[in-house]
Write a structure and sequence with these properties.
The structure holds two protein chains of two kinds. By secondary structure, chain A is α+β, with helices and mostly antiparallel strands. In chain A, 29% of the residues lie in helices and 23% in strands. In chain A, helix 2 packs across helix 3. Helices cover 73% and strands 0% of the residues of chain B. The chains are: A alpha+beta, B mainly alpha. Chain A: This is TATA-box binding protein associated factor, RNA polymerase I subunit C.
């Protein structure tokens, strides 16, 4: 059973940036392509953009219904206008032929249609794109990381705390057993708590024998106490009006936290004493910077905190709150900063354990460099190193020495998954680099260790391994014969990976030694790790593909005039029936799927072109099925038949306007759904979305217009049935379910996600935790069951579990139709 | 289509420029931005082939360095040398510095490299362009020093100092000063070697005289340079110490005191606790009056209350006659124990226990209350928790006893002390934990 969430990288820079030729490559800069986006929006979602205007104007236009009265001269017949527009693609072409009618219409209506939409939407779209682009470049929400390690009562036991789920709203507590020689072992399934908001940061700390977990969400912070036995005990929750940007647990006093928000306020918070604001300044410290990001951490004095913004780091004293404490770090000449350099992460490196380093050290990371500062010697960094990371360094951790008097490893992780390790030695209590810094293998470096996959699988795996690194936790297991370090990494896709590093005696230099790893190019896997990875991979490949975040437009007027009467009647019946029952309109209700024109396939080389068939099948992820069919030998005659057919369709696929002869095919039932995915398949999916959104309109439309609309809807390129548009899945069970129980299919999507409350630990998670890989990387993943999120009703749960294999696909197909007008992805807006 | 998009591009760019000029705030510079642009710009030019290959080569070198593959890195560096002939003048100017940085890192770590190779490389790199001569000379000298070749380093610094090219820029001036300072430091090194030689000589008048004169000439050379560098705001601990030592040797106590005072109290200098410690130690050696010592340490107490010299400060204050000093003495002790690095400082705890007793005998309970009021909400958890009591008792009984005694006074209501001080907060758990332990 797959417990995975499909994961896709969502937005990429390609989607946002201007792609034209850059005139001066030297001065190239990123330009958000608002015009292109607006253009796309108007084309793809014309119904949203022009719908309201259309509603206003519809009194005065006749879309082609039979003229009932000639009296009303205020109504304009658009029949000819639509015909002129037929096949006309004016996008970007100023010299296209314009008929007089079109010219007149665009002169009269152009200003209203164009400017209104542009003015209203343009600003909003620009704003949205800008925020998205900024987040793409620097996702400051995940600063600090969302993976925590809590050592247990026994020396080799502990717990990993991390969020999973599509919305990162499920907090998992996974018990892990470490072994000095073997791989770490997951003990049972993780227990989890469902929160009503995305988990951005997880901080763990054990002070005076008390293990605490602090969690930061966008507008909430919460604190749990971990017991060795029993579920985590919630201590307190804090709600914030402005978005919280940082949380840290005091290394001195149990249960004390520092919290900061975008308003510029920094508070000391403890369950016993409540909140105490110790700093508030919406302005940045050193010079003016637009960012409202703030960060707070502790210092060697339990009552003095450091507050960071993009321009520097300053002390804030809880005993005498003021807004002008002494600066500890300043972006400027003292640290010989570069132009445009900003603080991205600040961290206090002292811990209650007596370390060989002084407990007054602070780490500051900018996009270029790493600085070590001593709070007794402010403004002048003790150490500066250019980390060269090509992603924001938002994660850092200082570890205890692997053996007494060894240098301390300092880990630095970039959001892109790159890791750096420094070795700090504290001889004479001033930090020094004991060995040259190192890079550690990132997740994507483990790719060669996986078996070779079919192209789509390979891409899926690559995307999964390239997911941003959102958490980092390293553990030095005590009492190992050979010093070793375990590195856990959490990716944005919800997978937790680990790698083990051994300390290698460094013979070349006089320094004590430096932990090092295998070269990533030579990933060696132990059999157990291979088995584990295969299992993970198998589950990964079973995950339904991610939904396209948008769907291409299919709305065209071409077919209005070429409608066959008998077809129309059937469509109307179907539509009426669906409306009467108040259920989703399915393809089956409307009309059988028009024959989709496959792209011109090349002629097979022989009578039996097995290679192409097999390739074709494997592209559709049906490699195994094809193979079975081949063995049975039962498929061949059918296949040939379909190919013949495709050849006859070839000519028609070139003409943009479908002729009536195409429609004659519609009525002849297809022997089985076509196997080749074609662009038209995708189009048919979206036509559903239009239908659905328009179905809702019907009520607001004057009666005499409804007929027109229905006619209109009826001739949309109508796919045959739900599963036809899923060429990838031809599972008989999914077919039957999608047609017979359409109502239920849509339920999980429309269920209100708020049904679960905070602090309702579910008894068990359904996922399997698997691990184990010694040498390089191994992975285990805990993705909770999606159904538990949306459908608290047991009845539905059982349906889903019993038919898991087929049901997974259904939401994936039906969601885009809902998503067309109401995207499901806006989940982060939920409360905590 | 292309013309159309170009038009758009111009339009959008113009817009952006307008925005940029409106907004005076300097923008954050993200090094990974170019990656995003490159991955997007399918039509965009990616630069010349030459630029592409060199940038790929640079990436390979950096990757190899981070994986400690020194040989591989050195092989790539050989290819990278072609950037010295880049047609882009900006890149061409940057190239020597980048090559020097990469090359020196490789040679520093490469198992087969030696001082000769490094020196040869440094000498070659110094003379490519003029911008990096001073920087490379200084780093070369430091490398030689690291390998114990003091004389070569000295020669190197001497050469660099006499190097001139055109008018001196501000950055060059700074570097020259630094080079001179390091030369001064090496002069000091020779001077102190000579000093030990002279002191070990028998009282042979002539030889001693010659050696002393030789020594004196080193002093003069060093003092000129060291004096120059410590005028510039910065952290010059080693230089200041050496300079002061020489001044002291020649009996210039006033000069030495002046240097140390300036170094500690000049507001242009960054706050530096060491400066105050040097001054204190100097004054202490000079047997300066206690008031003066106290005033120096008072400032240090404000900057770094956790410094171990604060215990000495406490003793000074305790000995003092003024009552306000006695009061400060308590605050100093409490402030030391505020810091996480000093929680198990047994001397501080025993001082505190003793001093608390003394204060209470002297009927100054309000001092204790004053010091305690700002700490009462967190010291009990920070110092006197049950967990810590158990831990301390297990690890260090004397510490546990001292802490128990102090907690008894501060938290009140402990039976064996019979001292009840108001603390406002009744924390029976902490006391009882200590009492239990005491009873054991």
């Amino acid at each position: 059973i797959s417990n995975f969430y499909p994961w896709d990288p969502e937005l990429m820079s390609q989607d946002l940036l201007f792609r034209g030729r850059v005139k001066q490559p030297a001065r190239a800069k990123a330009t958000i392509d608002v015009i292109e986006q607006l253009n796309h929006f108007l084309w793809d979602h014309g119904d949203i953009a022009f719908g309201p205007l259309g509603m206003l104007l519809q009194e005065n236009f006749n879309l082609g219904e039979k003229k009932k009265s000639r009296k009303n001269k205020m109504v304009m017949n658009t029949e000819w206008l639509l015909r002129d527009l037929n096949g006309y693609q004016p996008k970007g072409c100023p010299w296209a032929h314009l008929s007089t009618r079109q010219r007149r219409f665009s002169l009269l209506g152009g200003t209203v249609l164009g400017e209104e939409v542009e003015n209203l939407l343009g600003g909003l779209l620009h704003e949205e794109l800008e925020t998205r682009w900024k987040r793409l470049l620097l996702d400051e929400a995940s600063t600090g990381g969302a993976l925590g390690w809590v050592p247990g009562a026994k020396p080799h036991h502990g717990q990993l705390v991390y969020p999973t789920g599509r919305a990162h709203d499920q907090l998992n507590f996974q018990k892990v057993k470490l072994s000095p020689t073997n791989e770490p072992q997951a003990l049972g399934d993780p227990s989890h708590i469902l929160l009503r908001g995305p988990v951005r940061q997880v901080v763990t700390r054990t002070i005076q024998g008390e293990a605490l977990v602090a969690v930061r969400s966008d507008h909430h912070c919460a604190l749990w106490k971990l017991e060795h036995r029993g579920p985590p005990e919630p201590l307190q929750v804090l709600e914030m009006e402005k978005e919280a940007t940082g949380i840290s647990l005091s290394p001195h006093l149990p249960g004390e936290l520092a919290v900061c928000t975008r308003s510029g306020a920094v508070c000391l918070w403890s369950p016993q004493h409540g909140l105490q604001q110790i700093h508030k300044d919406p302005e940045t410290f050193v010079f003016k910077d637009p960012s409202s990001w703030r960060w707070a951490d502790f210092t060697a004095h339990p009552r003095v905190l450091t507050v960071a913004d993009r321009t520097g780091l300053r002390f804030a004293d809880a005993r005498a709150p003021s807004d002008c404490g002494e600066l500890l770090f300043r972006v400027g000449a003292e640290a010989s900063c570069q132009r445009g350099e900003r603080v991205l992460l600040a961290q206090y490196l002292g811990t209650p354990d007596p370390l060989p380093l002084s407990p007054t050290l602070h780490l500051v990371c900018t996009q270029f460099s790493l600085y070590l500062l001593d709070e007794r010697l402010p403004l002048v960094p003790l150490l500066k190193w250019n980390h060269g990371l090509l992603s924001p360094p938002l994660l850092a951790q200082l570890l205890p020495p692997p053996y007494p008097e060894a240098p301390l490893p300092l880990l630095l992780g970039g959001l892109g998954g790159h890791l750096r390790m420094l070795h700090l030695s504290g001889s004479g209590r001033t930090p020094q680099l004991a060995a040259p810094p190192q890079s550690l293998p990132s997740l994507i470096d483990s790719l060669p260790g996986f078996p070779v996959l079919e192209p789509h699988g390979q891409q899926l795996l690559q995307e999964r391994l390239r997911a941003p690194l959102t958490g980092l936790a390293a553990v030095v297991p005590p009492g190992c014969p050979s010093p070793t370090m375990l590195l856990f990494q959490l990716s944005a896709a919800g997978d937790v990976f680990y790698q083990r590093l051994w300390l290698q005696p460094d013979t070349s230099s006089e320094s004590a030694g430096s932990p090092s790893t295998d070269h990533p190019s030579a990933v060696s896997w132990k059999p157990r790790a291979v088995a584990c990875c295969r299992r993970w991979l198998k589950t990964l490949l079973q995950v339904p593909p991610t939904l396209p975040s948008w769907t291409p437009p299919t709305f065209s007027q071409h077919h209005l005039r070429w409608l066959k009467e008998e077809n129309k009647g059937k469509v109307q019946e179907g539509l009426r029936a669906a409306m009467a029952e108040g259920r989703l309109l399915l393809q089956g209700d409307l009309a059988p799927l028009p024959p989709s024109d496959p792209p011109p396939a090349h002629e097979p080389f022989g009578t039996e072109d097995k290679l192409s068939e097999r390739l074709e099948a494997s592209w559709e992820r049906k490699g195994a099925i094809w193979w079975d069919g081949q063995r049975d030998g039962s498929r061949l005659p059918r296949k040939r038949q379909s190919r013949e057919k495709r050849r006859t369709q070839l000519s028609s696929s070139f003409s943009s306007v479908r002729s009536t002869s195409d429609f004659s095919d519609v009525n002849s039932p297809l022997p089985h759904p076509p196997k080749t995915p074609s662009p038209l398949h995708r189009m048919s999916e979206t036509s559903q979305s239009l239908e659905l959104s328009q179905e809702l309109w019907v009520k607001n439309i004057p009666r005499e217009r409804r007929q027109t609309l229905r006619d209109y809807l009826a001739v949309l390129p109508s796919p045959d049935s739900g599963n036809c548009s899923i060429p990838q899945f031809q599972n008989p069970s999914s077919q039957s379910l999608s047609t017979s129980e359409p109502g239920k299919c849509s339920v999980p999507c429309s269920q209100n996600p708020r049904t679960q409350t905070l602090f309702s630990p579910l008894p068990e998670s359904y996922s399997a935790f698997y691990s184990q890989n010694p040498n390089s990387q191994s992975l285990y993943s805990q993705n909770p069951n999606s159904q538990s999120l949306y459908s608290p009703e047991p009845a539905f749960n059982s349906v889903f579990h019993s038919q898991n294999s087929s049901i997974q696909k259904l939401p994936s197909r039906h969601t885009p139709s809902l998503a067309g007008s109401q995207p499901l992805r806006k989940k982060p807006r939920m409360g905590f | 289509m292309d013309a159309f998009s170009e038009e758009l591009m111009g339009f959008v760019q113009k817009d952006n420029q307008v925005e940029a000029s409106k907004d005076p705030v300097p923008e954050i510079h993200l090094p990974w931005l170019s990656q995003h642009i490159q991955s997007t710009g399918s039509h965009g030019q990616k630069g010349t082939n030459f630029a592409q290959t060199t940038s790929i080569c640079l990436n390979f070198i950096q990757e190899a360095l981070l994986k400690h593959q020194w040989q591989r890195a050195s092989e790539f560096l050989q290819c990278y040398l072609q950037t010295l002939e880049d047609i882009n003048s900006q890149k061409r100017q940057m190239a020597p510095e980048i090559i020097w940085k990469l090359g020196s890192t490789i040679l520093y770590n490469h198992p087969k490299s030696n001082v000769e190779t490094f020196s040869a490389f440094a000498d070659r790199m110094k003379n490519i362009g003029v911008q990096n001569y001073l920087k490379i000379s200084l780093q070369h000298a430091l490398y030689l020093l690291h390998n114990g070749m003091v004389e070569d380093a000295y020669r190197n610094l001497n050469q660099a100092e006499s190097w001139r090219y055109g008018e001196m820029s501000a950055s060059q001036e700074k570097l020259i000063k630094l080079i001179q300072a390091y030369r001064g430091l090496l002069d000091y090194y020779t001077w102190s070697k000579k000093r030990t030689e002279v002191s070990s000589f028998d009282m042979d008048g002539f030889a001693t005289n010659a050696a002393t004169q030789d020594m004196h000439s080193y002093f003069r050379q060093a003092s000129v340079n060291l004096h120059e560098i410590i005028k510039i705001p910065g952290v010059w601990d080693t230089f200041v110490k050496s300079y002061v030592e020489m001044l002291e040797f020649y009996g210039d106590q006033d000069g030495a005191r002046q240097v140390l005072t300036d170094y500690a109290y000049d507001n242009n200098f960054p706050s530096n606790p060491n400066a105050h410690i040097y001054l204190y130690k100097f004054l202490k050696k000079e047997k300066a009056p206690e008031d003066k010592l106290i005033s120096v340490l008072k400032i240090l107490h404000q900057i770094v209350p956790s410094h171990k010299i604060m215990l000495e400060f406490h003793m000074l204050l305790k000995k003092s006659n003024k009552e306000e000093h006695h009061k400060l003495g308590l605050e100093v002790l409490l402030a030391i124990l505020d810091f996480s690095g000093c929680t198990e400082n047994i001397t501080a705890w025993s001082y505190l226990a003793k001093y608390l007793k003394q204060i209470i005998k002297g009927k100054h309970r309000e001092w204790v209350q004053e010091g305690w009021s700002s700490r009462k909400d967190w010291w009990p958890t920070f110092h006197f928790s049950y967990y810590l009591a158990k831990k301390n008792w297990k690890e260090n009984r004397i510490l546990a006893l001292k802490k128990a005694f102090t907690s008894g006074i501060l938290l009140g209501k402990v039976k064996h002390q019979k001292i009840i001080l108001s603390s406002g907060v009744g924390r029976p758990m902490f006391e009882s934990s200590f009492c239990l332990l005491l009873a054991e």
